[in-house]
Amino acid sequence: MADTTTPHDWFARRDRRGGRRGTRTLRLRASAALIAAVVLAVLLVPPLVPLDEQAVDLVAKLQPPSWEHLFGTDEVGRDLLLRCVHGLRISLLVGVVAALAATVIGTAVGALAGAFGGWADRLVMRVVDLFSSVPHLLLGIFVVAMFRPGVWPVILSVAATHWLSTARIVRAEVLSLRSRPYIDAAVSGGASRWRVAVRHLLPGVLPQAGLAAVLMVPHAIWHESALSFLGLGLPAHQASLGNMVNSARSSLLAGDWWPTLFPGLFIIVPTLAIAGLAGAWRERINPRRRSELML
Prior knowledge:
The chain is mainly alpha-helical.
């Protein structure tokens, strides 16, 4: 059958592909630039400009953004830009550490369930289903309530509630890898299940586990902000994005928008930047699928 594609159609498809590729490249560069700016800010600003948590200047309270205070001041006269940077530092610390811990737990559980199969697989997945039936925030509140407010209880709360999705992803990937010929060859050669899981299956799921860890960082940031907003995360005097949004509610009702807007942007912008990098990573490890981020 003769090809009826015209030169115009061919160039049109090429232009569309080039446009999509250019959009992805622009998104990736913008995300990388935002994350680089965030990392530099949280690494350089706090050591150079320490934050006095107890500082109060009622004369300068609720000043709008200006050259002296680029983000304005809060309800007790503290500089919002400096507090946002310090709060973002804590949020990123919670996000990265909790995401790594949850990924390690989920990868170990999912790999063991998929590698051993049988009753072990069924038992593990029933436990995962049981924990998944409880909302993450509610379970996180229960975990945090057992400790005093602080960073490590929040990290423990996030890690204990966010390993479930990673376990499911890793288990599915392990079940797919088990059907590969080299796995059959290893089993036929006398390799034990532990050796097959550690030497052959686990390296195959590391890219998916790494992607899950990156996607979990925004989850952890939002989780920490939600707990702090509810008064269950970090202490009220400590610079936390959730605490800042919570304390700015009365100011927002009075028409002072900046104490709420800027901490909210410091939560949203890093989330979008990490999502952009995760989308590029997903397209690289699985280019046949479109990047549909489940945040």
